[in-house]
Amino acid sequence: MIPEKFYFLRHGESINNKNGLVNGWTDCALTIKGLQQAKKAAQVLKNYKIERIVTSDLIRAIETAKEVAKMHEKLKVETFKGLRERNWGEYENKSRETLPNLFINPSEGESWIEYYQRVENTLSNINLNENVLIVGHAGTMRVLNIILGHGDKSSRIPNSTPIEINLRNQNPLNFLK
Questions:
Q1: 3: closest CA among 144, 118, 146, 141?
Q2: What average pLDDT does range 40-55 have in this prediction?
């Protein structure tokens, strides 16, 4: 179940982001810029009551989550394979320009429906509470947008942009600065 108020943070810039390549399940680290972005996001989020940090098990998300955890003593980073970015199969590590659209069914990858169901099932099984921070991927936010009934499947947020999501508000997405 999704709580009424929680936080979302997309990982910092990864090596593949910088090089214009499809990341998916490719486990690549943050760039220097990505680490700086994660530290900046952590500085913003230190002013918010975060009681739990959950993240994808991919290194770019873990590195980002660990920066936030440094600002919130006693919080550990909990990883979940089900929060990974979509498996793009044949498109992994290729130019983003080779990806025809977000809703294709790549060979040896996940369809949009398989990806959506995986993330939705993971979120419902994690036992999320208020003030949880989910550190994930652009695709994770697309899924959240659909679950919450906001935005479209192709919406994209910049790397390491903290978002407060408060379903009690008329405009539930608040980009934090």
A1: 144
A2: 96
